[in-house]
Specification:
Elements lengths: L14 H6 L5 E3 L5 E4 L8 H5 L3 E9 L10 H11 L3 E4 L3 H4 L7 E2 L5 E2 L7 E8 L2 E9 L13 E8 L5 E9 L11 E11 L4 E12 L8 E9 L8 E4 L2 E6 L6 E6 L1 H8 L12 E8 L4 E13 L6 H16 L4 E8 L6 E4 L11 H4 L1 H9 L4 E4 L12 H17 L7 E5 L9 H13 L5 E4 L17 E6 L3 H9 L3 E4 L8 E5 L8 E4 L3 E8 L7 E8 L12 E7 L7 E7 L4 E8 L5 E5 L2 E4 L14
Parallel strand pairs: 3-4, 4-19, 13-15, 21-22, 22-23, 27-34
Antiparallel strand pairs: 1-2, 2-27, 3-24, 5-18, 6-7, 7-10, 8-9, 9-18, 10-17, 11-16, 11-18, 12-13, 12-17, 14-15, 19-20, 20-21, 24-25, 25-33, 26-28, 28-31, 29-30, 29-32, 32-33, 32-34
Helix pairs in contact: 9-10
C-alpha cells in the first residue's frame, strides 16, 4: 500500500469564483505580472526537476487469465519486454475474477440451454480429422441420475476414415463468455456412459487454455489438454506433443462414470516449469474420438464446473502470488496491482495497492462516483475507462457529436465523478466513435477546469502483439519507478502517451514561469510562452499545439473550444520549441506529435494558463 493517507475527493470547483477572480491566495511574481502560489516562490527548471525522476512507460489497461480473452500475465510481460515497457498495471475485471454469474452446470438438454441463475449455454458441433461417419443427438434415455433436471443427454458416434485419430466434438459457449474462467482452483466433473470404447475408440473432453510465451523449448501459443476416456490405456497415463497434453482416463463400458478432472494439475504434470494458475479455460469441448476405423460411441450428461478461491479477495491473492513468481522471470518489468470495476456499463480502473473487489450491488460496484470513492479510500488513482462504452454501431459525425455532448454533460454535472484519469488515446476510435471524439471530450473537461489526466489505452485481452495491435498506446509518466511516485505523477498530469514505437524520445511542456505539464500557472500577462520539449520529432513530422479556452461554460456548451497551430519538425531546435500563447483570456495548452504520414505518435497532457487561481484546484496540480 502507498505510504500516504487516502486521497480526499476533489473539492467542487467554484466557477463563479473563477470567473469573478480570486484574492488573498497568490502573490505577485518578479516580472510579467505572474501570480504564483506563495509556496512556489522558487520553481525548479525542467532539467532540474528531471534529475530526480525519469520517464517511465506504462501499460495501464491489461486483461490476463482472470478475464475473458486468451491473455495471460506471462504473455503480457513478454510483450512488455519486447516493446520496452517499464510498468504493467494488472486491471482484471472484478466480477470475472470471482467468476460471478458463470456457468456451474450443463445438463446437455439441447443445442441451447438455460438454467436458472446461469447464462445461456450453446453447443456447436464440429469435426476434426477425417471421419467416414458420425452422428450426434440429444436423447431422453439413457440419462445420468446425478442430473437434477434429467431432461436429456448428448449421444455421439464417430468412425475415422483412416488410421489417424479423428473426432466429432461439440464446443461450448456461454453468453458474455461466462464459461470456465481462470483455471486456478477449477475442477470439472463429467458424467460419461461409454457405449463403444476401447482400442482406438474414446470419449473425449478437451480444454484449450491461455496464450503463453515460448518456454521450455516450446513455441508461444495456447496450451491444451485432451482427456481420452474409456480406451485401453492405464488410467492417468500421459503423453505430450508440443503444447498439447493427452491424459487417458479409464471408464467401464455400459455404466455411468463420474470423471473428476483437474486441468491445472494435469497441465502442470505435463509441462513442468509453467504456472498454469495463469491460464483460463478458453475453449471447452466434448466429443468422441476414433482411430483405425473403429467406431466410438458415448453419452454425456451433467457437466459441473466447481471453483475454489473465487470469493472475496481470494483471486487477488492468487494474482499477487503470480506477480511474485513472475518478478523473478521478468525482473525488468515492474508489476503493479490494479482492478477494473466493471459490473455495470461504466468501468473504472483502480490503480494501487490495497484495492478490494467490491461486493455485488454496492455503490462501489455499480455507481461511478462510488467506484471512484472506493479507489480513493485506499489512496489509489481512479481512471474513467472507454467513456463511450466498450462497443457500438457505426455512427455518422452528427450522431457521434450528439453522443459526445451527452457524455460530456453527464460528466460535467457529476464533476467527472472525482476521477483522476480519462482514457483518451484510442487509435482508430472505439465504440462507433472516432479517435478525435475522445480528445474532444477531454478538451471539454479541461475547458471546465476538470483536471483529468489523459492516458492512452492498452485495453488488451491477448498478450500477443502490443507493437501492432490497434489499441496499443502506452502512457509515459515523469516519476520514479515506485508505486507512490507513479500514482503521484498520474494525479499531477505529468504524463504523455502514444504507441510503443514511432516516438522513442521524451515529450514535455513548461510554461514560461517553469510550471510543468499537468499543472496550473497563474499570470495577468496577456501573452505567455510555452516551451515544448520534444526531442525526437520524426523527420517530416509535425508538432501541433492545441490551445483551448477555459471559461467554465458547463452544460450550456458541452463542447471543446480549441484552436490548433501546426509546426514542422524543422521548427523544433535542439529538442525545444517556444510557442507564444494568447492569455488575454484563460487557456490550456497541450501538444500532439505526428509522423510524416500524419499518424499520431505522442500526445501530451495540458498546462493551464489562468489569469487567477480558482478555488478547488487539486493540490497535485499546483506547481511545487
Amino acid at each position: 500500500m502507498a505510504d500516504h493517507a487516502p486521497q480526499a475527493p476533489r473539492a467542487e470547483i467554484s466557477r463563479r469564483s473563477f470567473l469573478a477572480g480570486s484574492a488573498g491566495i497568490v502573490a505577485l511574481g518578479a516580472s510579467a505580472g505572474i501570480l504564483r502560489p506563495q509556496s512556489a516562490s522558487a520553481v525548479a527548471s525542467a532539467a532540474e526537476r528531471a534529475s530526480s525522476v525519469s520517464t517511465v512507460s506504462m501499460a495501464m489497461h491489461l486483461h490476463a487469465s482472470f478475464s475473458e480473452g486468451i491473455g495471460s500475465m506471462a504473455g503480457h510481460l513478454s510483450q512488455a519486454v519486447a516493446t520496452g515497457v517499464d510498468v504493467v498495471w494488472w486491471t482484471e475485471h472484478d466480477w470475472r475474477m470471482q467468476s460471478r454469474g458463470y456457468v456451474s452446470a450443463v445438463g446437455f438438454d439441447g443445442l441451447t440451454e438455460t438454467r436458472a441463475g446461469q447464462p445461456k449455454v450453446t453447443l456447436k458441433p464440429e469435426s476434426s480429422g477425417s471421419l467416414s461417419t458420425y452422428s450426434g443427438s440429444f436423447v431422453t434415455s439413457p440419462v445420468s441420475g446425478n442430473d437434477p433436471g434429467r431432461a436429456s443427454a448428448l449421444r455421439l458416434t464417430a468412425t475415422s476414415s483412416g488410421t489417424a485419430r479423428a473426432s466429432r466434438r461439440y464446443t461450448f459457449a456461454a453468453d458474455n463468455k461466462r464459461l470456465v474462467g481462470n483455471l486456478d482452483g477449477t475442477t470439472l466433473l463429467l458424467d460419461v456412459l461409454c457405449v463403444r470404447t476401447g482400442a482406438g475408440a474414446w470419449a473425449e473432453l478437451r480444454i484449450r487454455s491461455s496464450y503463453l510465451p515460448a518456454t521450455g523449448g516450446r513455441s508461444a501459443g495456447q496450451y491444451e489438454v485432451v482427456y481420452l476416456i474409456g480406451g485401453n490405456e492405464p488410467d492417468g497415463a500421459l503423453t505430450t506433443s508440443g503444447r498439447n497434453a493427452t491424459v487417458f482416463r479409464s471408464a467401464p463400458v455400459g455404466q455411468w462414470t463420474t470423471l473428476v478432472l483437474d486441468p491445472v494439475s494435469d497441465l502442470t504434470r505435463a509441462f513442468g516449469g509453467v504456472d498454469f494458475r495463469d491460464s483460463s479455460g478458453c475453449v471447452l469441448q466434448v466429443g468422441v474420438a476414433s482411430s483405425n476405423r473403429v467406431q466410438a460411441e458415448a453419452v454425456f450428461d451433467y457437466l459441473r464446473i466447481e471453483r475454489v478461491r473465487k470469493s472475496g479477495d481470494q483471486p487477488l491473492a492468487v494474482q499477487s502470488a503470480l506477480m511474485d513468481s513472475y518478478a523473478v522471470r521478468y525482473p525488468g518489468v515492474l508489476q503493479m496491482p490494479g482492478l477494473e470495476i466493471s459490473s455495470r456499463s461504466t468501468h473504472v480502473n483502480g490503480f494501487g495497492s490495497g484495492l478490494s473487489i467490491p461486493a455485488e450491488g454496492t455503490p462501489a460496484s455499480v455507481d461511478p462516483a462510488g467506484m471512484v470513492a472506493a479507489v480513493h479510500s485506499v489512496a489509489g488513482v481512479a481512471s474513467y475507462n472507454h467513456p463511450f462504452g466498450t462497443s457500438g454501431p457505426s455512427r455518422t459525425t452528427t450522431q457521434q457529436d450528439n453522443l459526445r455532448r451527452t457524455v460530456a454533460t453527464a460528466m460535467l454535472n457529476a464533476d467527472f465523478y472525482a476521477a483522476d484519469v480519462l482514457e483518451v488515446g484510442f487509435p482508430g476510435g472505439k465504440a462507433g466513435m472516432s479517435a478525435a471524439q475522445y480528445y474532444a471530450l477531454w478538451d471539454t473537461l479541461s475547458r471546465n477546469l476538470l483536471f483529468a489526466t489523459g492516458v492512452g489505452t492498452s485495453d488488451d485481452h491477448t498478450g500477443r502483439t502490443w507493437a501492432t495491435q490497434q489499441w496499443n498506446h502506452v502512457t509515459r509518466v515523469r516519476a520514479e519507478l515506485a508505486e507512490a511516485s507513479l500514482l503521484d505523477g498520474l494525479r499531477a498530469g505529468r504524463a504523455w502517451f502514444g504507441p510503443p514505437s514511432g516516438y522513442p524520445g521524451d515529450l514535455d511542456l513548461e510554461a514560461d514561469d517553469g510550471t510543468p505539464m499537468g499543472s496550473v500557472s497563474v499570470s495577468t500577462a496577456t501573452q505567455r510562452s510555452v516551451r515544448v520539449l520534444a526531442d525526437t520529432v520524426p523527420n517530416g513530422g509535425t508538432v501541433t499545439v492545441v490551445r483551448g479556452g477555459v471559461d467554465a461554460a458547463g452544460t450550456t456548451d458541452p463542447n471543446p473550444s480549441v484552436t490548433r497551430q501546426q509546426y514542422a519538425a524543422a521548427s523544433v531546435q535542439n529538442g525545444e520549441l517556444a510557442v507564444p500563447v494568447d492569455t488575454s483570456s484563460p487557456a490550456f495548452v497541450r501538444v500532439e506529435v505526428a509522423d510524416s504520414s500524419g499518424n499520431l505518435v505522442a500526445a501530451s497532457n495540458p498546462v493551464w494558463l489562468l489569469r487567477d487561481l480558482p478555488a478547488g484546484v487539486p493540490a497535485a496540480r499546483l506547481p511545487v
